[in-house]
Structure formats: C-alpha cells, structure tokens
C-alpha cells in the first residue's frame, strides 16, 4: 500500500499586517472626515445665521405688536434710579423741608409734612400737595414697585364733625394720598394705605416742634413688586365641576326600614330515623 505524502503547510508569520493595514485605513478615514468637518464655508454660515436672526426678530416684533398694552408687565425699577429722579423733581420742596427723602436697600421713603399739605384736623390736600404728588406719580407710575402709604399724627386728641380720633384722621390722609396717586396714573393694585394715629412718633410730643414732626404722611416705594394674592371664595364651586341637575328630577322615596325575611325551616333526619325540623340544619347535624 502506497502511503500518501503529507502536505506541508507553511506558517505565515506576517498575517498581522492585514489587521494593521485595516487599522491604518480606518484611522486615515477618520482624520479625513474630521478635517472636512472643520472646514466650514464662512459665507454660507454667515448667510444662514443672518436668515435665522431676521426670522426670529420679525416674529418677535409681530408678537409685540399684537400684544395689548394691558398684558405688558411693567418692570421693577432700581431704588437708586427712583431716588435720583425724585431728588431732581422735588428739589424745591426738599430745600424747604416740606418733604424729606430717605432710602436704604429695601425702599425709598418720602416723608410729607402734614402741616404744609393738610389743614389742621382735616384730610383735604392743598394745591401744593397735589402738585408734589403728581410729580411723584409721574416718576413711579411706569414701574411696578409696591407702594405703601402711612398716615401719622401727634397725640393731641381730636373730635370734630369728620373724625372722632387720630386713627380716623391718619387713615383718611393716607387714603387721600393713595387716591391722588391713583388718579395721576399709579396702578391701584400696587398701593396700600394705613393709619397709625399717634402711636409711631419720631419726636417728643411734649414740645411743639416734636408734635409738628410727628404730623406726617410717609410714602414708601419698595424694591420688589407688589404681591397680589388671588382670593377665591371658600364656598365657590367651579362651573365645570358643578353637578348637573336633571330637568325633571324623580322624587326620592324613603324606603323605610327593611322588612325581616322569615326563616326557612328544613327537615333533618336523625340517626334514630326521626325527623327534626329546624332553621339551622348544620347545627342539628353536628349535635346528633
């Protein structure tokens, strides 16, 4: 028998070159793509950017034109800006001391001398008071800062035909200032009025000068927007949740107490052959 010669297989020690060549090809392709991406056509990019900018700006202008003035929300002005404008507008009364201007990081305070702007024991403002408050309103009306007005008096008792005590007088003067500001264009939703009577003095009521300093109306412009809560009646039911009432409701009949059903009696045969008639046959069987 002739034996077949085995075929010698040559071992290729250079097969790693195939994988290496594939890796180099992929790496080359990667850098080619990265280079092509980095080369942006500046002219086309600038054209696209301008087109998008014009489109968005035109749509924003259309939205602002279609928006009614009532829906435009006013801005909150910085206190420093308001204080500087008030100093310029009220320079005359500030020099005479009829109005004092103070401020800090939370509010700007306008102290109005009630002796100059109101008659003794009265809440009717003078012409000078109207002029000053109109200037104040022109400055603060474009903005949405909260405004609080407080009336103060001295401790001299008062009891005339209009006011029974200093509480009523101080409150009436504060309300008068609020009404004048609202009439001049300040939004009523951002204002509040309160009367303190003689209970928050800034000077000694034992002297005429101290009593004169305590008779004042203080107007404070806050740095924040007025917080206006929405009040909902506690018993109010939304219309969508109101249960529908049928046109012809059927009368409700009281069924009354349920009638007791008579117990069913069943015969049970006993071990001795007899019959037992009972309403609880299981119990009878267990007791046989």
From TrEMBL:
* InterPro entries associated with the record: Bact_OuterMem_StrucFunc (IPR050330), MotB-like_N_dom (IPR025713), OmpA-like (IPR006665), OmpA-like_sf (IPR036737)
Q: Which GO terms describe its cellular component?
A: plasma membrane
The record lists the membrane-crossing segments as: 20-37
In what residue span(s) does the OmpA-like domain sit?
A: 105-225
Q: Which Pfam families match?
A: MotB_plug (PF13677), OmpA (PF00691)
Which keywords does the record carry? Answer: Cell membrane, Membrane, Transmembrane, Transmembrane helix
Q: Chief location of this protein?
A: membrane
- Does this UniProt record's set of keywords contain Membrane? yes
Q: Which compartments does it reside in?
A: Cell membrane
Lipid bilayer topology? Single-pass membrane protein
Q: Is Cytoplasm found in the keyword set?
A: no
Query: Region Disordered: what ranges?
Result: 233-288
In which family does this protein belong, per the annotation?
A: Belongs to the MotB family.
Stated name of the protein: OmpA/MotB
Provenance organism: Saccharophagus degradans (strain 2-40 / ATCC 43961 / DSM 17024)
């Amino acid at each position: 028998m002739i034996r077949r010669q085995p075929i010698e297989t040559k071992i290729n020690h250079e097969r790693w070159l195939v994988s290496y060549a594939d890796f180099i090809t992929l790496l080359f392709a990667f850098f080619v793509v990265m280079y092509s991406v980095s080369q942006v056509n500046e002219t086309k990019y600038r054209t696209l950017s301008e087109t998008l900018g014009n489109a968005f700006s035109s749509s924003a202008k259309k939205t602002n034109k279609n928006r009614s003035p009532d829906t435009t929300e006013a801005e909150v002005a910085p206190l420093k800006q308001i204080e500087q404008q008030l100093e310029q507008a009220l320079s005359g009364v500030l020099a005479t001391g009829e109005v004092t201007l103070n401020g800090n990081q939370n509010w700007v305070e306008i102290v109005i001398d009630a002796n100059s702007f109101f008659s003794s024991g009265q809440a009717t403002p003078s012409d000078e008071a109207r002029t000053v408050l109109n200037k104040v309103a022109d400055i603060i009306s474009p903005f949405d800062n909260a405004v609080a007005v407080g009336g103060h008096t001295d401790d001299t008792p008062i009891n005339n035909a209009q006011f029974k005590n200093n509480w009523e007088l101080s409150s009436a003067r504060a309300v008068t200032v609020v009404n004048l500001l609202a009439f001049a264009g300040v939004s009523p939703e951002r204002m509040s009025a309160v009367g303190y009577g003689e209970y928050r003095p800034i000077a000694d009521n034992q002297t005429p000068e101290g009593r004169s300093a305590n008779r004042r109306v203080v107007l404070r412009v806050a740095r924040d927007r007025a917080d206006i809560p929405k009040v909902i009646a506690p018993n109010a039911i939304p219309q969508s949740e109101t249960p529908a009432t049928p046109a012809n409701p059927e009368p409700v009949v009281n069924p009354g107490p349920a009638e007791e059903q008579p117990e069913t009696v069943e015969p049970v045969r006993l071990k001795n052959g007899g019959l037992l008639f009972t309403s609880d046959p299981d119990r009878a069987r267990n007791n046989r």
